[in-house]
Amino acid sequence: MDQYVLVLNCGSSSIKFAIIEAKTGTSPLHGLAENLGTASSKLGFSYQHKQHDGELPVNTDHQQALAVIADTLKQFEHLSQRIVAVGHRVVHGGEYFTHSTLINEQVIHAIEKTSLMAPLHNPVNLTGINSAQNAFPHLPHIAVFDTAFFQTMPKHAYLYALPYELYQQHNIRRYGFHGTSHYYVAHEAAKALKKALGNCNLITAHLGNGCSIAAIRQGKAIDTSLGFTPLEGLVMGTRCGDIDPSLPTYLIEQLGYSASEVSELLNKASGLLGISKLSNDCRVLEKQANEGNQQAKLALDIFIYRLVKYIGAYLAVVGPLDALVFTGGIGENSAYIRENTINQLQHLGLELDADKNLEMRFGQSGLISHTGSKPIFAIATNEEWVIAKDAMLYVH
Length: 396
Hints:
Blueprint: E1 4-10, E2 15-21, E3 29-34, E4 42-47, E5 50-54, H1 62-74, H2 77-80, E6 83-90, E7 101-102, H3 105-113, H4 122-135, E8 141-145, H5 155-158, H6 164-170, H7 179-193, E9 202-207, E10 211-217, E11 220-224, H8 247-253, H9 259-268, H10 271-276, H11 282-290, H12 294-318, E12 323-327, H13 328-333, H14 335-342, H15 354-359, E13 366-367, E14 376-378, H16 383-392
Parallel strand pairs: 1-6, 6-8, 9-12, 12-14
Antiparallel strand pairs: 1-2, 2-3, 3-4, 4-5, 7-8, 9-10, 10-11, 13-14
Helix pairs in contact: 1-4, 7-16, 11-12, 12-14
């Protein structure tokens, strides 16, 4: 009899959920609650390849959405009764966790302590853990940390140029996030290249509402754009990415912001949303830009320019590049973002095949580069399968 893992991936504005057979990665039921906290909150799930729509009230929060998801799963008893573990994506493990772990009170306390470093994510990850423990009290619950993949970064990459005591005493350093996604697509790219991952130099770009890029040398992460919190680096849906470190002080001392207001501004009101004044959804902005909205186009131009700069920087540190990989909701589906990014990198040996770029969307994975280019892939990520396999390590 098949054994299944329920995987919960609580993002800043969404909850992905799936029942997964860990050995094969097959998922008879999976779904998404999205646009949480907005008037357009919605729930959809696929069961045996048939799409179903659930119902969520307007402005549904994560806890309410998880309660609806739990009730939905209980309707499929033949699956829910064969769930042997629950795997939880947790964004920030700090220096407490370098690998996945069975959740207990000490683990929950440690996740709470790192919440200030991931204010959009760890609190909702904990909501998912608490709700799932109530719904499935007799199952082992396992935390799988985004930060674990980046434990191979060398000190010269993960340390900031701050007084060393801040690292020694307070663990202030770059941690990196989206680790399960970068781990998965790196392995998939190596398979496509027919090489061992340990022989691959890759740049992987996870682009969604949250964005990060990783430099992978000989199969190991050596640098990444996200830092002490998931705020550094690329422009994101509502997060600013790299800014002058003195700007928060200026906002507080000269413009009268409080510290909490600055955090809210940088994490929830900036990025694509802040620039466009329209939306954090790349699909909306692409449509508006194509219709002549200059503010939407500006937001996309800034997003792309920052991405181009990071790819260029990582080309300098990974060594001879074996492949560039796009993944995440934007990276997998936005032919516009991929095209306008790669068009600025042709002088570095990267060139798209326009037809393949348009074809490789909506769950399709494959090569999108032109003959003669360094390989460029669009790969649909599968963080949930990574989480499921880790969770099964704790099933006896």
